[in-house]
Design goal:
By secondary structure, this protein is an alpha/beta fold. Helix content is 48%, strand content 12%. An eight-stranded mixed beta sheet has the order 12-11-10-13-14-15-16-17, sandwiched between helices. Strands 1-2-3-4-6-9 form a six-stranded mixed beta sheet, with helices on both faces. A three-stranded mixed beta sheet has the order 5-7-8. Bound molecules: nicotinamide-adenine-dinucleotide. The site of nicotinamide-adenine-dinucleotide has 23 residues, from helix 13 and helix 16.
């Protein structure tokens, strides 16, 4: 096998080049090639300096993730890094694209780093539930200081070259088209000079002099990092870099790394990494399916969803025509979009020009004829089959043939909606989540007749507007809302049986969800869909509305809220619930949190099993993608199906049986056979 690494002498400089597409991952052959190159430079007296660079799109963009969990193959990345740093001849990393993870660690081991302006550099290991394992947490703080190293290690967000240069991570930013030449020239200037080695740097003293920086960092990032083990391990490792010798720090990093690598969070996050990629593939739709060009998109309805959906396309530079029934509704919808953009600009995440550019692509209309030349139209009107069918029939009569007609329905049958048209092959569901300009998930609902090119185009479009897509078959609520139903049903039942509603929210919060169902109700508004007659009270929600407890906006809903929106459980609500239970003849009892957890989550797994059995999801991991991106299921558990596998399917079945909850055949067979949904 030919090596992905080649070497070439340019005068007295040895250029080590990696060509390992697509991202120059640091697999064994690459590591061996680099080690051989460094060795060659050491043995050859005519060589006085070394440049390490990559062909293709990027500098080394990380470890070879397929090697994870397998026996290590020499030379290891830490060995290669040590070898580079130990060189007596200057070694220069010439960076383009992204120097990530192991790639960043290689760069740190080099004596100098130069980069082209658009390059990015970072240690994203935390995103896989890990920390760097080749002394990255030890070299980086010694080079740039603990304070600058902390966000890089603990958030995993890469930094640009300007920032990297300002903290001393990069020595020089050079011409975009002359990287190799400039690197060789730069290397020559370093011949004979004392070599700076990151492991011997002293910038990490800032963390010793001012140890508050670690607590401050934790406090500032608490919400983002909540529940994740790896960022904390990263902080610990950076702290250790200030307190220990390099050798001991490396040992500490290794201990922390090994613990994470063998733990459940990293396994879950690696599962998710592959799950997201797998969800992009539709098994029976060939990768080379021709795509339908989408240059202009129509949206029907400028309400909560229509406006949010439109913003996705505007931000991606795609022209939008948005249609409403009345001018006031149109004006209101468009004003909300502008306000949202302006708020983003106020927070510094957009420029005023970008706001105008996005809004400049937007046209409002009351006439269906204005949608005639759209390539895609997304309907986001009221959740009512008759209304939707009427809209689709109109669209069918005016929108050009070959255009895609999509519905954002949450629950309704896409196949039935498609019957309102003469082109059911061009109809599908594009189910966005609220707020649609923020939430990552796009459930793509495949109708019975949806064409391959329509599906392939939708998948591609999802990527273009920055969404994570997963395909669902047609069933009530599709994948996500279908699984939400049994959880909501249990939550409602549990409070009737005596569970504290705040315990239900807390159980889900402790599990890692951003909020529980009652907090969610308060946030969305308890009065959504309320008949507005306080004398008619047949449900707990109606009783809350009758008492003026409309949710956060009224300062009280299930909870009482203070001016900072902190919640406290309400005696009034507890009484409303217990009165209802009494009326229904339900006996109230104390319900432990463990029972609450099992009754909320196990039925979701059971529903997921049914979804798989009915082939409404292509694979269990797609369900995980839906729940992590659309409903805040904690990433570090891998999603509901991976989580069920970790708990053990037999345990899930036993729990369901214990609480007299239904167990699907598919789940019970899998559990009996000792099988898993994923892996
Ligand atoms: P909404 O009430 O905020 O907006 C609906 C808009 O559609 C209104 O502005 C209304 O004037 C307009 N409209 C109604 N009939 C119309 C017609 N015939 N022609 C043109 N405009 C018309 O509702 P929403 O929350 O945006 O929901 C829209 C759709 O999205 C529903 O199918 C809903 O199930 C789905 N959805 C909602 C959410 C959510 O969280 N709100 C999430 C996912 C999907």
């Amino acid at each position: 096998m030919t090596s992905p690494i080649s070497t070439e002498c340019q005068d007295n400089v040895l250029v080590i080049t990696s060509d390992n597409p697509p991202v120059n991952a640091l697999g064994q052959a690459v590591r061996q090639g680099i080690a051989d190159g460094i060795q060659k430079a050491r043995d050859d007296d005519s060589i006085e300096a070394v440049v390490i660079r990559c062909d293709g799109q990027t500098f080394f963009a990380g470890a070879d993730i397929t090697e994870f969990g397998k026996p290590p193959k020499a030379p290891s990345l830490p060995e290669v890094c040590d070898l580079i740093e130990a060189s007596e001849k200057p070694v220069v990393a010439a960076i383009h694209g992204t120097a990530l993870g192991g790639g960043c660690e290689i760069a740190l081991a080099c004596h100098y780093r130069i980069a082209v302006p658009p390059a990015k550099i970072g240690l994203p290991e935390v995103k896989l539930g890990l920390i760097p394992g080749a002394a990255g947490t030890q070299r980086l703080p010694r080079l740039v200081g603990a304070e600058a190293a902390l966000p890089i290690v603990a958030t995993g967000i890469p930094i640009d070259t300007k920032k990297a240069e300002s903290i001393g991570l990069i020595d020089k930013i050079i011409g975009e088209t002359s990287l190799e030449k400039d690197a060789v020239t730069f290397a020559k200037t370093k011949i004979g000079q004392p070599l700076p080695r990151a492991s011997q740097g002293s910038a990490n003293e800032d963390g010793v002099k001012n140890p508050d920086i670690f607590d401050k960092f934790r406090a500032n990032n608490g919400r983002k990092l909540r529940g994740f083990d790896a960022p904390n391990a990263g902080i610990e490792a950076v702290k250790a870099a200030g307190e220990m010798s390099f050798a001991d720090g490396v040992k500490k990093e290794r201990e922390l790394f090994t613990k994470l690598m063998t733990g459940t969070q990293s396994a879950a996050m690696r599962h998710y990494f592959f799950a997201e990629r797998a969800a992009n593939k539709i098994d029976d739709v060939p990768a080379d399916t021709p795509l339908i060009p989408i240059n202009k998109v129509g949206i029907i309805g400028a309400g909560t969803m229509g406006g949010g959906i439109a913003m996705n396309f505007l931000s991606a530079g795609i022209e939008i025509v948005i249609l409403e029934m009345k001018q006031e509704a149109l004006d209101r919808g468009m004003a909300v979009m502008r306000k949202n953009y302006e708020n983003t600009a106020k927070r510094g995440r957009m420029t005023a020009e970008q706001v105008e550019a996005a809004m400049g692509l937007l046209t409002g209309t009351l006439e269906y004829d204005d949608l005639a030349d759209c390539d895609l139209v997304i309907e986001a009107v009221y959740e009512n089959m008759e209304v939707k069918k009427e809209v689709f029939a109109k669209l069918d009569s005016v929108v050009k043939l070959g255009a895609i007609l999509a519905s954002n329905t949450s629950y309704l049958n896409i196949d039935e909606i498609a019957t309102a048209t003469e082109r059911p092959g061009y109809v599908l569901g594009l189910h966005f989540f609220s707020p649609a300009n923020v939430m990552k998930l796009l459930e793509i609902v495949r109708g019975e007749k949806t064409r391959h090119d329509v599906l392939a185009t939708a998948m591609k479009l999802a990527k273009k507007i920055g969404k994570v897509a997963a395909v669902s078959g047609v069933c009530p609520g599709f994948i996500g809302n279908r699984m939400l139903s049994p959880r909501q049903q249990q939550a409602n039942q549990l409070i009737m049986e005596g569970a504290n509603y705040w315990d239900i929210d807390d159980v889900l919060l402790e599990f890692g969800f951003p909020m529980g169902p009652f907090q969610m109700g308060d946030l969305a508004g308890i009065d959504i869909g309320w008949h507005r007659d306080p004398s008619k009270v047949t449900t707990v929600r109606e009783a809350l509305c009758a008492a003026g407890r409309f949710g956060q906006k009224a300062g009280k809903g299930f909870y009482d809220y203070d001016e900072r929106r902190n919640r406290t459980p309400s005696d009034e609500v507890k009484k409303i619930i217990s009165d209802f239970a009494e009326k229904e003849g339900k006996k109230q009892r104390d319900i432990p949190k463990e029972e609450i957890k099992q009754r909320l989550l196990y039925p979701m797994v059971n529903e997921g099993a049914k979804i798989l059995e009915e082939k409404m999801a292509q694979r269990a991991s797609d369900i995980d993608v839906v729940w992590i991106n659309g409903y805040g299921w904690p990433l570090y558990t891998g999603g509901p199906m991976f989580w069920a596998d970790s708990v053990g399917l037999d345990t899930v079945v036993a729990g369901l049986e214990k609480h007299n909850l239904p167990v699907s055949d598919y789940l019970s067979k899998k559990a009996a056979a000792g099988e898993k949904f994923t892996r």
